[in-house]
Structure formats: C-alpha cells, structure tokens
C-alpha cells in the first residue's frame, strides 16, 4: 500500500488538476484500521460524488507494489468542518476565531428550521403572491391578522420554504420567540410517544404554550382520529389565546379525506392561500437564485433552457442545477446550453419512472437472496429481520414514504415497527462502516433501477 501523500500525487496526475482540486484535495486521511483506509470528506455531497465516480481510481492510487488494493471507507467529517479551500495548517486555523452563530441562527437551528429557507431566498411571482403576502404579515405581527393561515399547493411549489421563512424572520427580530415548526408526521409521532410514555402533560405544554405553531403537511391527519382530537384541542387553546397557527397541505381542507368536520371547519376560519406551479418567469428567477446559492454561474440562456426543459417542479430543477454544478466544476468548463444538454441527458426527454417500494424490496431480496414472501413474512430470524429492517429504512430514506405506508407494504406491519426498524439501522450504520457501505451500495442500485 502507498502513503496517502503518494496517492495524492498519482491522483493529481491521473485526474487532472481541476478534478483533483475539486474532489481529492478536500479529503483528509483519517486512519488505517483493520485493513481499511478511512478518508474524511467535508460534506456528504463530496462523499457521494467520490463514491460514485472516483473510488476505483483512488483505490488504484493507493495500491502498492504488493498489488493488494485496500478497502476504502469515505466518511463525512463530524463536528467542526474544515474549509475546502483552506490550505493553512490546522494549528493556524484553530487560532482564528470562528464566526459566532448569532442568537437568531441558534434559535432557528434549535427550532429545526431549514437553513436558507428565508424570505430573502424566496422568489415572489403571481403563483405564490397571496401566500407570500400572508406569510410576511404573520412574520410582522403573528396572531394579529388571519388565524389560522392555511397554505396549500402541490409538491415542490415552496410551501415548506415559505413557512420556514416565517420562523426565520420572527427569530431575526426576537430570538426568544416561541416558534414551533414541525411536520404533521412529527406531530403524530410525538403524540404516539407521549401517549406511550404517559407524558401527555409535557406534550400539551410543548404545543399549547407557543407564540406560533407551524405544522407542515396537515393532509397527514387524514384518518388519524386520536391525533385529530389532540390537534383539535391544541388548535382551540392556541386560537383562543390569539396565538398564530400556520398550516400547509397538498390539498384544501375540503379535499383532505377522513378529516373531522370540526377540524375542517376550523382550518377554514382564517385565510386559505394557494400556491400554484410557478410561471416561466418565476421559474427562471428561481433557477438563477438556486444557482447563485450553490455558487454556480449559469448564464441567462442556460437558465432559460433549464426552466423550459427540465420541469416546472422546483425540487427537480434544483437537482438538475446541482448536477450541472458538479459536472462543470469537474471539467472547469463554461456552462453552455450544449454542455447542459449533455450533462443533463438522463433528466431530459426521458419518461422518468418514480422509484417505488417494490424497487427497494426487489433489490434487497436479490442482494440477500430472499424471496419477496420471506421479506414480507412474520419470520423473525436474523437473516430475514436485518434485510427487512434495511429495506424499511431505505424505503424511508430514499422515497420519503410514510411509516404507515411502509408498514402496509411489508406484510401489514404496524407503523411503530417501521419507526423502530429505521432507528435501529440508522444507529447501527453510524458505528459500522461496513454496514453503511453495504447500505449505500444498495441505495445506489435502487436509484439506478429508475427508468427500468
Ligand atoms: P413544498 O413544501 O411545497 O413541497 P418546498 O418548500 O420544499 O416545496 O420547495 C421545494 C424546493 O423549491 C425548495 O428547495 C425551495 O427552496 C424551492 N422553491 C420553491 N419555490 C420557491 C420560490 N418561490 N423561490 C425560491 N425557491 C423556491
Ligand atoms: Mg413541503
């Protein structure tokens, strides 16, 4: 085996200077353990890219005269991240004071708001004007205008972004404000846990003593009677105290199935604002905003090309921009329409098929040599339990499927079983790099099934 330093020189020669700077230089050699080389990448993004594109090259570069290729595990650096551009020795770097997170940022982080989902980064157009105005007015004076504000629209139109912006703006002004933001699914889970632990008093305290309660994706309440009841009381308490309630959903209150009449009625008390798919101009502005946020220079005509040819779904556009950014930084080339066309080939024209839970199950069964029936069965032997848990975990991570839906597709299991499986695998892969590598390999084969 060769030293990391030696390998770096080889890699610079084989990959070229710019790819070397983009992908190899940011890595840090962490350790050589049990025959494995551990490398630390500054961000998950680097690790994924590296594993998908350069792992073999790196392995070759580390293979010495003995010809034995070492196993390589790329980890995402924990804790203090090193600066990608930084070439200063670590000792020098430590002397420099770190920028202090200001109080508003701390508050936003504790409230689990998504960083960057701010009003500043939100492009306003005809498709979202009303919802944006409502959100701004809440941020200015929560609880004093419309209550609740109910924002609905299909997926990817910016609902989550907009309601996070409310939280960020309030914390900017008063970091000690009590803003609770969570998905409806998280609300359901917290309720289940509180019921099980008989800690309903705390649950009530947490949700009924706030200035602003933001619940994302309330369509998730459909058919959940116990949660609806609790939500109803939370709603009433807050509303009576003139505390602000903000809800989002992919449907209007009327269209949410199996929703108690009294809740539906309350959801309609205040302002109902819709967000439509953005028009061309708004989409274009969003593309440029996202590109700037990712630090890529995309010329206007390329942005227009993306806006027209990829999708009107902002989430998909964002994926395309990221892909473009990576490809461009690799080749250090100018981003032209031809380049974008080539780089985004797989995303263009093709009828894309969504990955499904069946895809996950098929890949898992193939890998572990099980039949679908065994995977879904009630058998509790280790050789079935672990693959089943991994499959549930991947269905959750890759597809964002809800716990009940996953449970149903795995032989009608209870959602708490799925929650348990996901947390077991999450915990285990954290201290088992081999398991993590397997899971990541599986995740890749599942994603590449798309379009089959
Ligand atoms: P939803 O919750 O409606 O499914 P999100 O809020 O998650 O959608 O938005 C998906 C992505 O699109 C996010 O990255 C978000 O920042 C971006 N986005 C959507 N609308 C806008 C907008 N008007 N301006 C800037 N970014 C937007
Ligand atoms: Mg959302």
Strand adjacency order, main sheet: 5-6-7-4-8
Uncertain stretches of 5 or more adjacent residues: 80-88
Radius of gyration: 24 Å
**Average pLDDT, all residues:** 86
Total of DSSP H or I helical runs spanning 4+ residues: 22
Q: Find the structural class using helix and strand composition.
A: alpha/beta
The unique ligands bound to this protein are: adenosine-5'-diphosphate, magnesium ion
**Pattern of helices and strands:** HHEEHHEHHHEHEHHEHEHEHHHHHHHHHH
Anisotropy-based shape: globular
* Portion in helices: 40-55%
Structure write-up:
With about 450 residues, the chain is an alpha/beta fold. The protein contains 22 helices and 8 strands. It has helices at about 5-15, 15-25, 45-55, 55-60, 90-95, 105-110, 130-140, 160-175, 185-195, 200-210, 225-240, 260-265, 280-295, 300-310, 315-330, 335-345, 355-370, 370-375, 380-400, 405-410, 415-430, 435-450; strands spanning about 30-35, 35-40, 70-75, 150, 180-185, 210-215, 245-250, 270-275. The strands form 2 sheets. The protein has a 5-stranded parallel β-sheet with strand order 5-6-7-4-8, with helices on both faces. A 3-stranded mixed β-sheet has the order 1-2-3. Strand 6 (about 210-215), helix 11 (about 225-240) and strand 7 (about 245-250) form a beta-alpha-beta unit. The two termini are about 40 Å apart. Bound molecules: adenosine-5'-diphosphate (ADP) and magnesium ion (MG). Magnesium ion binds near residues 159 and 217. Adenosine-5'-diphosphate (ADP) binds near residues 121, 122, 156, 158 and 161.
């Amino acid at each position: 085996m060769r030293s990391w330093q030696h390998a770096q020189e080889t890699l610079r020669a084989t990959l070229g200077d710019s790819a070397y700077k983009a992908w190899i230089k940011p890595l840090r050699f962490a350790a050589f353990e049990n025959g494995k080389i551990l490398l630390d990448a500054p961000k998950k993004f680097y690790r994924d890219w590296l594993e998908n594109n350069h792992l073999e090259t790196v392995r070759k570069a580390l293979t010495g005269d003995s010809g034995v290729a070492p196993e390589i595990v790329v980890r995402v650096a924990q804790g203090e991240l090193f600066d990608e551009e930084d070439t200063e020795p670590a000792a020098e770097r430590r002397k420099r004071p770190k920028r202090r997170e200001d109080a508003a940022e701390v508050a936003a982080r504790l409230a689990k708001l998504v960083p960057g989902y701010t009003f500043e980064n939100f492009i306003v157009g005809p498709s979202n004007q009303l919802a944006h105005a409502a959100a701004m007015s809440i941020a200015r004076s929560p609880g004093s205008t419309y209550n609740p504000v109910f924002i609905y629209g299909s997926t990817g139109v910016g609902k989550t972004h907009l309601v996070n912006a409310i939280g960020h703006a309030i914390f900017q002004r008063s970091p000690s404000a009590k803003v609770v933001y969570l998905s409806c699914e998280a609300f359901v889970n917290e309720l289940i846990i509180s019921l099980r632990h008989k800690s309903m008093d705390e649950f009530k305290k947490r949700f009924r003593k706030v200035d602003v309660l933001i619940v994302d994706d309330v369509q998730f309440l459909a058919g959940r009677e116990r949660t609806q009841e609790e939500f109803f009381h939370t709603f009433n308490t807050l509303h009576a105290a003139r505390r602000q309630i903000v809800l989002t959903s992919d449907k209007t209150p009327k269209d949410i199935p199996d929703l108690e009449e009294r809740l539906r009625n309350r959801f309609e008390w205040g302002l109902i604002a819709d967000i439509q798919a953005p028009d061309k101009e708004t989409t274009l502005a969003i593309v440029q905003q996202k590109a700037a946020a990712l630090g890529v220079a995309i010329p206007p005509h390329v942005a227009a090309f993306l806006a027209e040819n990829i999708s009107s779904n902002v989430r998909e556009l964002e994926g395309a921009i990221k892909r473009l950014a990576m490809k461009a930084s690799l080749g250090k080339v100018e981003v032209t329409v031809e380049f974008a066309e080539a780089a985004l080939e797989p995303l263009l024209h093709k009828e894309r098929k969504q990955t499904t839970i069946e895809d996950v199950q098929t890949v898992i069964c193939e890998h572990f040599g099980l039949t679908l029936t065994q995977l879904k069965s009630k058998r509790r032997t280790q050789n079935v339990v672990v693959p089943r848990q991994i499959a549930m975990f991947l269905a959750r991570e890759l597809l964002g499927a809800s716990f009940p839906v996953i449970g149903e597709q795995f032989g009608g299991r209870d959602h708490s079983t799925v929650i348990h499986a996901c947390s077991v695998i999450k915990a285990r892969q954290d201290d088992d790099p081999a398991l993590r590598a397997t899971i990541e390999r599986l995740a890749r084969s599942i994603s590449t099934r798309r379009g089959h």
